[in-house]
Specification:
The structure is a single chain. The radius of gyration is 22 Å and the shape is globular. Helix content is 43%, strand content 15%. The protein folds into two domains: 182 residues, Rossmann fold (3-Layer(aba) Sandwich), CATH 3.40.50; 176 residues, Rossmann fold (3-Layer(aba) Sandwich). By secondary structure, the protein is an alpha/beta fold. Helix 7 runs antiparallel to helix 14 and helix 8 crosses helix 13. The protein has a six-stranded parallel β-sheet with strand order 2-1-3-4-5-6, with helices on both faces. It contains 15 helices and twelve strands. The model has no long low-confidence stretch (mean pLDDT 94).
Amino acid sequence: MIIALITEYDCRNPNIRSGVPYHIYKGFLENGHLVEMVLVKDKRVFFDKLASKIYQFYYHILLNYRKGSYNAFWSKALSKAYAKSIKQIDFSKYDLAITISTITCAYVNIKCPLVVWIDNTYESFYSNKYYCSTPPILKIKNESYDLDSLSFNKAQKVFVASGWLRNRILGQFQIDENKISILPRGANLTLKIDNKEVKKMIHQKIQSEVCNILFISSDWERKGGNIVINTFKELQRKMSCTLTIIGNIKPKVKEDFFDPSISYLGFINKSSEDSFEIYFNLFKEAHFLLVPSKADGFGIVYAEAASFGVPSLAYAIMGVTESVKDGVTGKLLPEVASAEDFANLILNLWNNKDEYKQLSEHAYNYAAENFDWVRNTQIIAKNFQ
């Protein structure tokens, strides 16, 4: 198949947008398809850009966000400009077009089947305070809704990363339920370990006297960094444990990491061979991934953990309920759960080696079947072959 990947991002760069465009691009290539990147650009005219500046000045400066925020990147003007930037593209030469953002295709004249593959809508994004602290003004709410709606109507198939999002879309938009299917994201790993190696790792972990906990995120507040620290403090009173933190976090937070049992490694670039080896080895040694996110459309880090047979512990919220299958790839707690609740969960699993072993093995097996970019991109292609 000849596939057009319509995107705002350079999909050859593994460090953009959590690596999602890159791994979709690579997934189709590895399945033997020809993939062409159709890169949209901001071709807004002067008056559209000026209007955007005026809106921002009025709502952000004069009103100090009291009436909401204005985000030009959710506007019809930008979507139309994107369409204008690729108007010379003849989509009839493609067998399939795919996008991960509805703003890129809402106004494009696409003469081939279109697939939209998303983990959030604009509405599900701005309605969550951890994504969007100040809701957008009504104009942007209406325009962003229309962008999603136009794209869903135009698409032959809409793939969503979670059952949570599928249900939300069916409740918000006029869309045939047969048109929308659940297809998870994949694990962004360039190397994989086989089942034999995973079982060996799990066996070694069970013999360990120290529980190694891993937290990965650069968004300390949204991903529940404070819950992680408090959970770790609870655990230290009951068991031997270490905590490793990966990600760019604010210096004022780093000052809290005086405990020698806490290692802060900063950002690790997985696209670098040397850095990826560090990342790889951390997962091999970790007993649990603890990322109690307060908002997430999916959460690729959970898929990565499962690919190593590492159970994830998180809140049962949004798309996390797809990336962390409760009792299969990890354990989920209600959103009201405290640090003490997470600590007790870890302690119970630590003391029940058989349950931990079974959970770890199930996580690996589930990830192999569901969190694989090559497999999932091929599922899309087969719908149109």
